[in-house]
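Appendix C. Worked example: cysteine-S-conjugate beta-lyase
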Amino acid sequence: MINLAPAKITLALTMQYNFDEIADRSNTACVKYDLRRFFFGNEEVIPMWVADMDFRTPDFILKAIRERAQHEILGYSIRPDSYFTSLINWLKRRHNWEIQREWTAFSPGIVPALNMAVLAFSKRRDKIIIQPPVYFPFFDAVKNHGRKLVYNQLIMDKGRYRMDYKDLERLCSNGARMLILSNPHNPAGNTWTRVELQRMADICLKYNVLMISDEIHSDLVNRGYKHTVLASLSPEVEANTVTMIAPSKTFNLAGMATSTVIISNPVLMKRFHRVLDSLHIEMGNLFGNVAAEAAYTHGDAWLEQLLDYIDGNIHALIEFAGNHLPQVKVIRPEATYMAWLDFNLTGMTDAELKKFMIEEAGLGLNEGVQFGPGGEGYMRMNLACPRPVLMKALEQLNHAMGKRMAEG
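Step 2, the predicted output written as structure tokens:
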């Protein structure tokens, strides 16, 4: 019998993916498209808001799902050894971070994991630090459980956010129990450097502040930049860090509800499992398990092509804005497929900016104020779309801006 495995591997490595292809997602119960009227009052806007991609989920993932679906019983399912092997190998291969299977716990998503971490590692009225402007579910994960939200606001400095370490130390010394970090940063796309993370971690270790690191965008690091896993800094940092990852952003699997929480400290893991077990959600989703394993096993070549395409979209945005949109400052994303756009030079209020985007530019973006203090005058744009769609959106924005300026 001829062994076809080598040929299949070669095909996977050389296959070229078409990210210019436009897939119609309307009427598929899709949040991004089918809730446009609900969120924007207009179902015709180009949706560039919620953080999923308009690229087809990779073929090797769909194949794995279809093969499993051929079995006619979809009963209770476990994550097999091959699932954990794929996850561990992916983190070693992509991020040079070695973990152990017993460090991992399941979560249906990063946001549920954040909420479970708050419940597991803090008490009512405890102070929890977040760094706005930042991914808005961080706010509710703290407030909804009776904890006190405290801000270590990021500082915009020459087109890039930096941390306010002096203020961070003040908050830590005043009794904060936990810090929730966005790494890479959402919405601005910072890839926090090793030096930046070490300085932050040193302060947290000094005052025994637990670090929760949301690293869901860690695979989506743009060309010329590097992601640093917070827990990889040192054994001391690793023991005081809870890391959260998922294949959902990387491979467009948000609907599969499959994430991983990584905790090397057995005492912290026991506390996290106590909450996880109490909610009876550890089993997860059969197809999510299959999809994640396929992604982490076969996803390297596809991801490299995706990163090249997103890099092209970033350059297209920066070039277009530089040539046609002098009122808009693009904060170049070092990671993620989101762009943080500064409209403060337009003089519009946040309410005016929202109305302008929907009614005049025909675009559905995230309002900067959703991300908390520091988000005023900003909009977040999703660049994970075919380039023709991006260029159409930019042309609409340019036309609307020109018309507004002409009308005075």
